[in-house]
Amino acid sequence: MDRTDLETYQVQLSQVDAALQAEPDNAELASLRDELKELINLTEQALAQAAASSSKVESSRKAASTPSLAWSAGDECMAKYSADGAWYPARITAVAGSEQNRVYTVVFKGYNSTEQAKPSDLKPLPPSYANTVSATKRKHETDEEKERKKKKNEKKLETRAAKAKEQNQKQATWQKFAKKSEKKGVHIAGVSGTSIFKTPDNPLGKVGVTGSGKGMTQVTQQGKHKFAPNLDDNP
């Protein structure tokens, strides 16, 4: 049976109804009308069952052609929100249920709301969203690297400043010590006066040698002591 047969039965029923109006007491026409009504009813039921069966077969075929994804805890996905039926980015936090009846716990990003979802309520993230996330992650990593370098340079500058300060303090302490020594009559080369490392004025002098370039000290020959006995005189 198909819809064409149903339309044929409906046309025949209308013709029998018209004939009964002319002959309302015709028992044969009345019986034919009842048979046509029952036939039409059976045909409509058969067509409805055929449509339902076809729909189930189509759904099964689509399900078989589209394998379900094996989601795991920690996966990023798009999840359907039960309140409005819209899809939002989410993260799977837990997986429960049997293999034939999985139940996923998801947390919607930006809202921190948690829901239980079926496999049909999950789908992969669109490529555009994944690319945006990757670009944002790379930018975030670049910013972190810049911040690390900035802190490292600041630490180097602080270390150099501390060393310079320490050196200045040591130099000030030495200068203070040298001045006190000078007041006590102790001369410390390089602090006041002439440095021992200054180039001598004498061209024969050497740097770092005190008195360099001067002539040798003359040795005076000693004479005889007036009380010394004359060894040349004989007794």
Automatic annotation (TrEMBL):
This protein's record includes keyword Nucleus: yes
Ranges for region Disordered: 50-69, 115-235
Domain of life: Eukaryota
Keywords, in A-Z order: Nucleus
Extent of Basic and acidic residues compositional bias: 155-168
Residue ranges constituting the Tudor domain according to the UniProt record: 70-132
A cellular component annotation (GO) from this entry: nucleus
Cellular location(s): Nucleus
Entry keyword annotation includes Nucleotidyltransferase: no
Principal subcellular localization: nucleus
InterPro entries documented for this protein: Tudor (IPR002999)
Protein name per the record: Tudor domain-containing protein
UniProt lineage: Eukaryota, Fungi, Dikarya, Basidiomycota, Agaricomycotina
